[in-house]
Write a structure and sequence with these properties.
With 227 residues, the chain is of the alpha+beta class.
Length: 227
């Protein structure tokens, strides 16, 4: 599949892989995990956002935070997960949304891209999408949201620089996977017409996929070599 991608896309994925390794090298050299930049020295508590004010780039419209659900609601071995968004103002064609937040959302007006589960070692283990009510997002079809993946970047993330660099590289590296997950989300939610399931309280995670980062990086490098 990767060998069929345009050269610029393969190069983008390969650059993301290089950045990911660079950040991980820095964490080893500094003897700390990038999650510590978000959590700090305070006790890690369920449902709290880390950092408290989220990380938001006004130039790109990207935003993320890290948090954890109650232990009984977490995946097996999950410590917490990232939620990654981009403002809907960055949509190429901002048509009417399929669903919008219940509360007044006159501020950032976010579209959810993907969530990334982390285990207790700080290793990413799963990518998943959420139903609209979970993140109270502006819900658009996958075809409209997928171009926003390339907008997920941070020019000045402040104290969260290491985490932001890692997360932006991880999202860029997994762009084809996330795009597929959004399409699978649409198939489950029924966004193509008829009675959509985005208000279904029994449907929280429409699509998910385990992370195979070593295999994916190997595939990216082989695709670049096969140009």
């Amino acid at each position: 599949m990767l060998a069929m991608l345009p050269t610029d896309r393969r190069e983008r994925l390969a650059t993301a892989a290089d950045t990911l390794f660079s950040v991980l090298s820095e964490t080893v050299n500094e003897g700390r995990h990038f999650l510590l930049d978000l959590i700090g020295e305070v006790p890690f508590t369920q449902w709290s956002h880390y950092p408290a004010e989220d990380v938001h780039d006004t130039d790109t419209g990207a935003l993320f935070f890290y948090h954890a659900h109650a232990p009984e609601d977490r995946g097996a071995g999950e410590h917490g997960h990232f939620h990654c968004f981009v403002e809907r103002s960055r949509l190429r064609v901002p048509d009417a949304p399929l669903a919008r937040p219940d509360a007044d959302d006159s501020g950032k007006q976010l579209c959810h891209l993907v969530a990334i589960s982390m285990d207790h070692r700080g290793v990413p283990v799963e990518l998943f999408t959420t139903n609209q009510w979970v993140t109270d997002e502006w819900l658009y079809p996958a075809d409209a949201v997928i171009p926003l993946i390339d907008r997920f970047a941070f020019s000045d993330p402040g104290a969260a620089s290491l985490a932001a660099r890692w997360l932006a590289a991880f999202i860029a590296l997994h762009q084809p996977v996330i795009a597929r997950l959004l399409q699978e989300r649409d198939a489950v939610l029924g966004t193509g017409g008829g009675a959509g399931r985005w208000g279904d309280p029994d449907l929280e995670v429409p699509s998910r996929r385990p992370v195979d980062i070593d295999g994916w990086i190997t595939a990216v490098r082989e695709a670049r070599q096969d140009r």
